[in-house]
C-alpha cells in the first residue's frame, strides 16, 4: 500500500489550475484516486479536493509538502495537505440530550467514523457513564443558565485548554445548549460543527419543534452548520427532513427529529473528517 | 353501485361523537367505507371525515341531508355532506410560469384529478393556447405590476363574477404572481390554494430560489397553503423538498423546484377535491 | 389521569362494526382518544385500533375485559385489549453487527421506546460489554455456521426457555445472522421482527449490499418484516431507502445502509409496541 | 461568449490521465468550467466528463476535434466531444399512458429540456392531438398484441427509417408497451432509455404496481434504464420512490407512481442530453 493524501485548496479562479495541480502530482510521483473541483461563478473562487497515492518510493513526505507549499503560493491558494490515514481529533460537547452523542460514539467504536475522541465536555453530568463505557475522559464544566460573562469565559478558558492539550481538529456541538462567546466562535472558525434541530433558516433559536408544531409544517428537519458568532447563521453543511402530520404532538416531532439530527450530524462530521468540506464565504462546498 | 358520500365535521371534542355519527349512519342505512378522526388536545376540537355508501334503497338524499343537519346541530358541529361522485369545480389562475398549470391540466384530462375546470384566469396571454388545447375558456384579465388599487379591484370584480357564474368550489393559484386583495382573500377563505416555491416558513416573499441559493441550503422545497390576507402565512396543506448542492445555480434550483411545486400542488388539490382537508385555526388537518 | 387502553380487532367486514365498537366503549364509560380502521376490499377483512380512556370510576378492568370478550365473540373478531401503560417485554437477538442493537438500546434507555428488555441473545460475544453497560443480561448461545440440526434445536430450546421465563412479547432480530427453524418461526408468528438490509423483494438472501452494488441501483434500502418460515418473505412492516451513486463501494453502501436499517427497525418496533401493526394475510396493516 | 464543449471519455485507468486531458485543454486554449472523473476499482476503467470553454479565438473547432481524436487514441479511450449548445435530437415512443410524454413535452417547450423532438411514435392513436398541440409529427405505427415477428420487424423498419431520417441521438420509451426486437435493442445500445414502473430489480415484467400491492411494500418506485435485449435488466440510470400504505388500492399506487415515473424519466433524459451518463459494463456512471 502506498501512502495516501488528500489535498484541498481554494483560490481565485483562472485558467489552468487543474493542469497545475495535476502537473504537480505527476511530477511528485502521485496518482489521483479521486478528484473534484468547483468554480463558483459568483465568488469567482475555485475549489478543489484531490485524493491521491504517493507511488514513488523516492519521494518523501517532506518534499511533497514543500512542493505543495510552493504550488499554493504560486496559485495564491489557501491549501491543506492531509495524511489520509491520520485520524482527526474530535472533542464532543453535549448538554442533557444525548442521542447525537450516543450515535457518534457508536460510529466511532465500530470504525465507521475514523477519529480520535480524546475528550467529551458537558455542562451537565448526564453522560458521565456513557463516556466511561467508551473509555473517553468526561469533563464536567458546569455553566448555569444566566451565568455571568466572566463565569462563561472562565468555563471557556478550560475548554480552550482542552483544545490545546489534545490538539483538537474539530469540535462537535452535539446538542450543547450553551451559546459560545464571540471569541471562542472566532477561534473555532471552520472547525466547530453544531447541529440545529430545525430546517434552517426556518425556526431559528429556542424550541424549534414547538415552533414547527405551531406553524403546522408537514416536514421537520435538522441542520448541521459551522459555528459562527451569528447564532444559527453559520455556513450550512448538511440538512435533511422527515414527514410529520397534524396528529403529532411536539413530543412526537421531537422524537422523529432526533433520528434526523443524528444522521445529519454524523454525515457532516464524516465529511469534515474526510476533508470534503470547504468554506465559500457564508456557504460551504461539500465534495460528497 | 350504491350512492356514496363523504361527510366532514369539526366541533368541540367530547365523549361519544364517534358513537353519535356511527349511530346516525346506521340509522340511515349507510355503511362506512373509510373513516378518520382527530382530536386536537390544544384547540380541544374534534375533526372527522367519513366516506360511506347509502345502501338502503328506501332512504333518500333529502332525508339523509336533513338527518345530517340535525346531527350537526346537536353536536354544535361545522359539517358538510358531499356527494362522492360529484366533481368539484375548479378555477385555475396563472401568470407566466406554467408548469403547475400544465401538470394540473394533464391530471384533469387523464382522469387522475376528478374535477371540472370551467375557467382559467391569467394576467398574461402566455397560456392561451395551452388552455385552448384542453377546450377550457381562458380569461385574460391583465393587471400591471404597480396597478392602482381601483384597477386591482376592478380586475378582481371580474374574477368574482367568474366564481359566481361558474359556481367555483376551489380556486388554485398555480404560480399566479399577483397578491389578492384582503377582501378577496376573506371571500375565498378555505377554498383557495396557493403554491409557494419555498419550504415555508423559510424564504417568504419574492425570489425564494435566489434566497435559498444565497443561504446555501442543501434542500429546496415547495409549500401548498390556503390563501389568507397574511401573505405566505396561510395554513399549510402540503410540503416537500428535493436535494440540491453547492454547484447548482439559481436557475438549476428553479428547475428542480418546478418538479416539487407541481407535485406538492397536485397533492393539495387532490386532497381538497376528496374532502380530506379541514381547517384547524391556522393549521390544517389532512386525512390523507 | 384515567387508565388508558388500546384495543385492536380484525374480523369479516360488515355494516355496523364501528357502531358496535363505539357503542361498547360508551356503555363502558370509555372515551376515544384515537381511532383508525381499514376495510380491505380484497380480503374482505376489517381492521380497527382504538386508543381510549376509561373515565368511569365505577367500571373495573375485569368488567371491561369481559365486555370486550363478548364483543369480539359477537363480531367473530380476533381482538386484543392492551393496557396502554404496560411496557411490552422485548428480547433482542444479534450476531456480530451491532448498530441496530445500539440504536434500540439507546432509545430504550432515553425513554423513546417504552419497553422492558429482560434479555439479549447472541451467538457471539461481541456485545457482552454493551449489554452490561445497560444492565441487561447477555446470553451467549453460540451456534457455528453449519451446525447440525440437533445443535440448532438445542440452542433454540434455550431461546424458547428465555421467551417463557421472561414472558416475552416481541423478539427482535437486530442483525441476527442465523435462520430460525420452522418450528420457532411458527411459534413466534406475528411477534418476531427481522431487519433485512435490502429493499425487499429486491436482493433477498446473503450480502444484499454486494448484490445492490453489482446491479448498480441508485437507491439502497432496508426492510423490517415479520419472521416467517419463508426467508425474507414475511409480511413487510416498514421500508426506507437512501440515495447512493456509482462511485460508492460496497463498504460505503453498507455504511449508508446501517443508518437506514437502524431507523427502519426502530420504527417497526415502536409501532409494534404501540399495537399499531395488524396482520392481514401476507401483508400488514400499520395504523401509523 | 466563448464556444463551449463537453468531452466524455472512458479508458483503462492509469496514472496521469487527468494531467493528459488538462494538458490537452490548456494547449488548445480551453478553460475548464466543470470536470468530474471516476476510477472504478473493479472494472479498472476510468471515466471523465469535462465541460469547458474554447477561449482562444485562433483555435478552430476542427483543430480541437483533431487534437481530441489524437488524445483518445493515445489514451486508448472511448471518447466523444459535444458542442454544448447543440440540442440533441430525441424521438419519443409511447403507447396509451401519456403522463411521461406530457411531462417531457412541457419541459421541452418551456426550455427546461434543451432538445429537438422531430417525431413521436406510437402504436396507438391516443396522443395524436397532444403531439399536434406541440407541432410535432406523430407517427402512428400500430402493432397488435401478439403480432407476428415479421409484422413487428416491419413496424420496426419504419422506426429505424425515422431514426435515420431525423438523425436521432436518443430514443425515449415513455411508457411504450412493446418489447423491442433484439436487433433494434443492439442498434440502440446506449442511446435508448426506458422507464420501468417499479424499483428494479423488484417487480420486473408486467403490472408491477399490482405485484407491489400483492407483496405489501411500503414504498413504490420507478427506474429509468438503458434498453438492452434483456428486458428490465439494462443499466440503471436513475430511480426514485414514494411512500404508500396498506389502505391504498392498485389504482392509487398507479396514480402515485405516475409522478415518480415522470420525474425519474425526465432526470434521466436531462442527464443524457447533458452528456452526464457513461456506460460501465452493465452499470452507469452518472456525473450528476
From TrEMBL, chains A, B, C, D:
Enzyme Commission number(s) of this protein: 3.5.1.10
Enzyme class label: hydrolase
Classification via Gene3D superfamilies: 3.30.70.260, Formyl transferase, N-terminal domain
Keywords, alphabetical: Hydrolase, One-carbon metabolism, Purine biosynthesis
Residue ranges of coiled coil: none
SUPFAM superfamilies: ACT-like, Formyltransferase
Task performed by this protein: Catalyzes the hydrolysis of 10-formyltetrahydrofolate (formyl-FH4) to formate and tetrahydrofolate (FH4).
HAMAP family (alphabetical): PurU
Reaction it catalyzes: (6R)-10-formyltetrahydrofolate + H2O = (6S)-5,6,7,8-tetrahydrofolate + formate + H(+)
Family: Belongs to the PurU family.
Protein name in UniProt: Formyltetrahydrofolate deformylase
Domain ACT: 6-89
Domain of life where this protein originates: Bacteria
NCBIfam families membership: PRK06027.1, PurU
Active site: 232
Classification lineage: Bacteria, Pseudomonadati, Pseudomonadota, Betaproteobacteria, Burkholderiales
Pfam families: ACT (PF01842), Formyl_trans_N (PF00551)
